[in-house]
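Fig. S4 source data, part A: sequence.
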Amino acid sequence: MLGKLQSMSLGILGSKGLFSLLQTGITHSKANWICLTTDMKAHLQDFEHMAHDLWQCHTSIAELVLNEPVALGPVDASVEGMGGAWPPATTHNALEPIVWQHHFPTNFTADLVSDNNPTGTVANSDLELAGTVAHQGMLVQHCNCNHHTIHILNDNILAVAWQKKGSATATGPAACLLGFSALHQCHHRFLAEQTTCPG
């Protein structure tokens, strides 16, 4: 079933972000049995929702093939918070530059893995990934990204790899963030390109 979903994902915009928990479930299966968690069921329901949406809004070529980006912007995150900028990608673009920042909630950063908190559940790469998801959200509030490519620059290699692949090998915050990013991308009908950029 997972193989069929992966082949279908090529034509369902954003759906590649829903595979983290499903792949982990198969990895940890026992005696040909897979325990479906609540989160795994939610991702399967999200996939079903996206597939049903195809009847109302077909996937266009612009949503599958990277094109000249409508916006290109860097984003960064740390325990202090996240922030980024969206200047126009080209001189022919009418996008007004966007600069934003936001602090992370203290109950979230309190779980950050560190020398003083080795048993934490949030890694620095999770914060960076949250920054890329928020960066997308900030742009679509100010610019019509429908059937366009956007280009995100980030200095965290793991966060960029997760976004490019659409999945993570962990079941923590990264899997949930990628799932949210998938739904967001499907709703706003844009294609996101990710590139590592030294900070």
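Fig. S4 source data, part B ends here. The helical segments are 2-8, 20-27, 38-53, 106-109, 124-142, 157-165, 173-188.
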